[in-house]
Design the sequence.
C-alpha cells in the first residue's frame, strides 16, 4: 500500500486537508478545494509537511487541527508547530508559537517535540442554521 | 498532552495559549510517591483520548477500584473529566483547601471532576440490544 491516510482529514469551510505518508516515509499535506460547479473536491496543492522522514509512531504523534481560517500541523519529533492558511487558498505556512499564559510554571518543562494536539469538539448545540456562521 | 497533564489551549493569530491544565488521576500511593514514579492508572496517548463538549474521556487499562500493588487488575475503564470543574484552591500546596485551613482543614480533592466507569469484561449485547436502540419515552 503506497500511501496511508491515518490522520483524519480536516475540513475548513470549502477546503479539505489530508495528511498522507508515502512509501518513502515522507509526510505530505494535500489541500483540496470544493469545486461547486462539478461538485467534487479538487486537489489544489501538495506540500511536504514532515521535516524529514516521519517517526515510526507518526500515526499517534501527528496533529492536524482545524481553525477558522486554516489548519495547525504538528508532528512528533519536531518542536515547531505550523499553520497553513486555507481561507484565501494560498496554503501559506506560518509558525505557531506556544504561550503558557497563566500556566507559566510549565514553560520549558513541556517538550513541544512530544506535545500531541487534539481538537476540542465544537458545541453543536449552539450551531446556527445560517450557513455563513463559522462554528 | 503528556502523561501527567492535559492542557487546554486557545488559538488565535498564530498563538496557542495554554488556559488550563488538567492533572491525570493518581491514587493515594501515587500522590505520596509522585505520579511520575508510580504511574499505573493512565498512560495518556492520543489514541486513548478524546474531547467532547462537556467532558474529556481517557481509556485506562486499569479498573476503577484497583489498588496499586494490592489488587489484581480485572478490566479496563473509562475516565471522564468534566471540563468546567472548578479546582480546589491550595496556593500554599499544603494539601488543605485554603478557605478551610485552620478551621475544618478540608483536604484537597485531587480527583475532583473525574469520574471512572469500568468497561465490562463481558456483556451480552445481543440480549440487551433493545435497551440501546429504544429511545427512552419522551426524552428524544
Sequence:
Amino acid at each position: 500500500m503506497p500511501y496511508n491516510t491515518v490522520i483524519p482529514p480536516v475540513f475548513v469551510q470549502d477546503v479539505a486537508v489530508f495528511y498522507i505518508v508515502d512509501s518513502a516515509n515522507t509526510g505530505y499535506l494535500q489541500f483540496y478545494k470544493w469545486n461547486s460547479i462539478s461538485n467534487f473536491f479538487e486537489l489544489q496543492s501538495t506540500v511536504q509537511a514532515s521535516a524529514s522522514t516521519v517517526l515510526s509512531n507518526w500515526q499517534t504523534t501527528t496533529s492536524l487541527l482545524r481553525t477558522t481560517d486554516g489548519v495547525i500541523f504538528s508532528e512528533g519529533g519536531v518542536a515547531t508547530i505550523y499553520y497553513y492558511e486555507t481561507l484565501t487558498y494560498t496554503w501559506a505556512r506560518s509558525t505557531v508559537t506556544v504561550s503558557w499564559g497563566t500556566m507559566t510554571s510549565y514553560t520549558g518543562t513541556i517538550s513541544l517535540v512530544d506535545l500531541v494536539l487534539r481538537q476540542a469538539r465544537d458545541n453543536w448545540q449552539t450551531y446556527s442554521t445560517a450557513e455563513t456562521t463559522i462554528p | 498532552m503528556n502523561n501527567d497533564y492535559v492542557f487546554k489551549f486557545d488559538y488565535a493569530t498564530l498563538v496557542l495559549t495554554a488556559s488550563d491544565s488538567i492533572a491525570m488521576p493518581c491514587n493515594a500511593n501515587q500522590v505520596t510517591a509522585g505520579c511520575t514514579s508510580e504511574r499505573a492508572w493512565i498512560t495518556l496517548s492520543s489514541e486513548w483520548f478524546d474531547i467532547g463538549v462537556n467532558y474529556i474521556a481517557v481509556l485506562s487499562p486499569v479498573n476503577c477500584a484497583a489498588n496499586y500493588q494490592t489488587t489484581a487488575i480485572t478490566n479496563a475503564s473509562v475516565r471522564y473529566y468534566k471540563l468546567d470543574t472548578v479546582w480546589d484552591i491550595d496556593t500554599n500546596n499544603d494539601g488543605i483547601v485554603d478557605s478551610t485551613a485552620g478551621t475544618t482543614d478540608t483536604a484537597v480533592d485531587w480527583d475532583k471532576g473525574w469520574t471512572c466507569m469500568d468497561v465490562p469484561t463481558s456483556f451480552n449485547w445481543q440480549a440487551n440490544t433493545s435497551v440501546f436502540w429504544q429511545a427512552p419515552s419522551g426524552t428524544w
The beta strands of chain A are 4-12, 15-21, 26-35, 40-53, 63-66, 70-74, 81-85, 93-99. Chain A is about 5% helix and 45% strand. Chain A touches chain B through 34 residues (CB under 8 Å).
